[in-house]
Structure formats: structure tokens, C-alpha cells
Amino acid sequence: MSFMALMVVIVYEARWVYPEIQAYFSQTGNLTGQQLATRSRGYLQGAQQQLLGEQPFEADSIQTIRINLDLAYGLLDVEVYRQNYSCTAPSLQTINALSDRIYRGTVTSVDAASELLEPIDCLTRIEMSQLDLRGMAINAFSESTRRHNQVVTYSSMVIFALGLLFWVMHERQLRRAERATEQTLAWMERAMRDPLTGIGNRSALQQEVMAKEGTSLALILVDIDFFKQYNDSMGHPEGDQLLRCLASLLKDVLGEQATLYRLGGDEFAALLPCQNDSLLGDYCDRLTSGLRGADLQHPAHPDNKGVTLSIGAVRFDAREDAFPLAYSEADKALYRVKSAGRDGYEVSLKG
């Protein structure tokens, strides 16, 4: 009975557990480093197709192009890429700068599409590298497991010891797979967060809107006035500290119901439930009052003020097709505030 039981265990391990371990090791169903790069490249190629279309600089096309660039930026802006691939940082700079130039209309569609070739090439290299590393690891693990199964099959004199050893190895691999899953989930979480302030990034904002489909939401875009002058005067470390202070201020003023995001540079966004435009105006009033209360100094402010903000806000119903329009309206409202002299807010009624 003991011998038969051990043989059943060996057959089970050889026929079922090995594929199961291989599935754990490959992390099937989880978003891998290669898949992040693939998706980022897809967004860049989508932006290229828009740029090379018949009317690339219509308002809707520009918005679609910028969203594709923002999503590509968020998926590429991963610490492991920055550490292991030297082309990551230049590619992020190219994407970020190109998004602004497209918005300002200071670049032709052909030039913009050409500038995307370098980031796309960088992402392709990352994809291939990630695939190679993954394949090497899986092949090495598979070969090791096959050799072990052969030893178990032909070593009948030590069948009990080998069976026990394989069970121990199986349990160890299960624990490794669990740890790997936890690490992957943690890595994905970090990929959706801004490393400087700890709040969400552009990709996280898009996902949060989709998760709240059907809800009446407020989108508030916040931009620090004359932030470049602040950096030039105080230095980038102080500029980074100001960004962290603003993230903390937004959280304190808007409360736990608000989800915060840093969209890049000195631009922030807040997403929170909102049933009417009057309440949205109250949120903006609270932000401006909270900033005045914080009394953050800005030695290089052209108007001899402390730190001031330009704020654009809109209320909308969360739907996949409604968010790009809402974002565009909030962005336009913010830039109208800037054009009018900054240090204020505007609530768009077109959400």
C-alpha cells in the first residue's frame, strides 16, 4: 500500500504538478514587464497613426493623441525600466515634451511622428529583453524539473526519499509562486503611482474613472503658477518639496473622498464624487482658501505673491466616452485661468 501510494504521488507530480509549477513560474494572467512595454508601444503607435492621418491637428485628434502619449508615458515610467534600460529616461522626456508641443501646435505632424520612432524602438528593445529573460528562466527551470523527474522514475531504491524530496520542492515552489505574485502586484501598484509624491499618475486616473462608471464625478486640474521660476530661484530639491507639500494640501483640503494624481511636472488632478456644479465651486474655493492659509512662499513670483494656483474643474458622469471630453474641458478652463492672469479657478459647464 505504501509503495502504491508513493507511485501515485510520483505519477501525480510528473503529470500534473510540473505543468502547474511552470504556470506559476510564468505568472500566467499577470501583467508582466514585457506586456507593459507592449501596451506602451501600442499607445505610441496609435498616436503615430493619428499624426499621419488626414486631419491630425483637429481638436478631437489632438486630445486622442495626447491621451495615447500620456498612457504610453505612464506604462513606460517604471522604476525597473529606468534602472535597466538607458533609453527609458530619454524616451520619457521625448514623449512628455512632444505632448506639450502638440498641444501648443509648435510641431508638424510628420516631425512629431518621426520623434516617436526612438521611444518605440526603445520599447521594442525592452520587450525583446524581457521576453529573453523570461524564456531563459522558464527553460532553466523546466530542464531542472525534467532531470529531477528522471531521477525519481529510475531510482526505485530511494523512491520514498525522492518522493518526499519532490514534495518539499513542490511546497517551496508554491511559496515562491505566491511571493512572486505578491511582488508582481506590488510592482503593478508602484507602476500606477508617482514616485515623488506617492499619489497616482495619469494611468491610474484613467483606470479610476473606468472603475466608477455611472457615478457623477468632479475632475479638478491644478497647476502651480510660475513653477519654473520657483525652481530657478529655489533649486529643484525645493521644487520637489513644494510638489509634495501641494499633494499633502490637496489631500487635507479635499478630504478622504478625493483621489489625487500627479499628471507630470507641476500639474495635479483630483477626482471625487460631486452631484452639482455648486458643490464643485465650493471645492475650488476650499482649495484657494487652503493655499492662502498655508502661506507657501514664492520668492520669484512676478506679482510678488506667495505660491498661487490655476485651477480648472468640470463635473461629468463617469463613462469611457465622456472622460476625454471632461478632461479636455477642465484643461481648457485651467488655461483660460492662466490667460486671465493666473491665481484663480474656473468651473466648466460643458462636462
UniProtKB/TrEMBL annotation:
It is an enzyme of class 2 (transferase). Its EC number is 2.7.7.65. It catalyses: 2 GTP = 3',3'-c-di-GMP + 2 diphosphate. This is diguanylate cyclase. The lineage of its organism: Bacteria, Pseudomonadati, Pseudomonadota, Gammaproteobacteria, Oceanospirillales. The keyword Disulfide bond does not apply. SMART domains: GGDEF. It comes from Vreelandella zhaodongensis. Pfam families: GGDEF. InterPro entries: Diguanylate_Cyclase, GGDEF_dom, Nucleotide_cyclase, Rev_trsase/Diguanyl_cyclase. Residues 215-350 form the GGDEF domain. The keyword Protein biosynthesis does not apply. The chain crosses the membrane at residues 151-169. Keywords: Membrane, Transmembrane, Transmembrane helix.
